[in-house]
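S.,

As promised, the alpha-D-ribofuranose run. Input:
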Amino acid sequence: MSVVVLGSANADLVVEVARRPAAGETVLGSDTRIMPGGKGANTAVAAARAGAEVALVAAVGTDDYGTFLLDALREAGVDTTGVRRVPTPTGLAYITLTPDGENSIIVSPGANSRLTAADVDLGEAAVLVASLEVPIPVVEHAVALAVREGVRPVVNLSPVAELSAATIAALDPLVVNEHEAKVLADYSHGDGPRSTVITLGARGALVITADGSEHIPAPQVEAVDTTGAGDAFTGALAARLADGATLAEATRHAITHAAESVTRHGAQG
Ligand code: ATP
Ligand code: RIB
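Predicted complex:
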């Protein structure tokens, strides 16, 4: 296994609206589409599509959504041995999508919050990738384990949450979008990550290492659905890092992969 992903698996309930309702307002939307999602599952699928051998550590319910998500993961070639089924509803994401391809999301974590440190097994992985829709202590444990076992730890700081200074200092890289990057200032008490990638949407990404920073632009595409762009980016990045690419090389590849993902519907499209 070259990449182990630790993170959420959600059923995405997607409705298209002309515009988002204001507080107290009702708007009519499209029929609801039910798609496989969750930051962990999306990242694992992207890494598998980028050619990596990938295992996902996650939790889904014993309900039909859990079966739906496991089927989608297996079809994409992700090893699901580490996806535990628990007697709690599968995580759900309520997503509204506007014509500009932008989304807003409410996540009901359900089974994702049942993940424990005992679920984490890094096997022979070269890279660990984690995101933050699962309990933070489990992420902290996985990163510490990765450091002990010589596995390269990557964290996508999404959704934003506070991590210990020791966890942040181990990351190589920490992946953040522009909004998340703003909270990095709060980590000024520690040494900061070994490297950082700031994703900039249609403008590509900024790679920051001890040697300096490099802006890598994105190809121009027509975005129809940016849901999961950050997950597609991080999964493809991890796949290349596991192959021995430099961070800049891996970022170039991830930008191409993520640009293609925003031209298709669904977080795993
Ligand atoms: P999301 O929360 O929607 O999953 P994000 O906010 O975490 O995404 P972004 O910076 O918006 O992350 O996008 C991640 C990467 O996806 C960008 O670095 C870029 O490579 C690609 N990307 C996103 N939007 C576009 C776009 N409109 N055109 C081309 N590439 C894009
Ligand atoms: O990053 C996109 C993902 O966030 C969606 O698939 C949704 O499930 C939420 O986890």
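DSSP finds seven helices and 13 strands in the chain. The pocket of alpha-D-ribofuranose (ligand 2) is lined by residues 8, 10, 12, 37-39, 42, 93, 105, 107, 133, 227-228, 230-231, 267 (CB under 6 Å).

- D.
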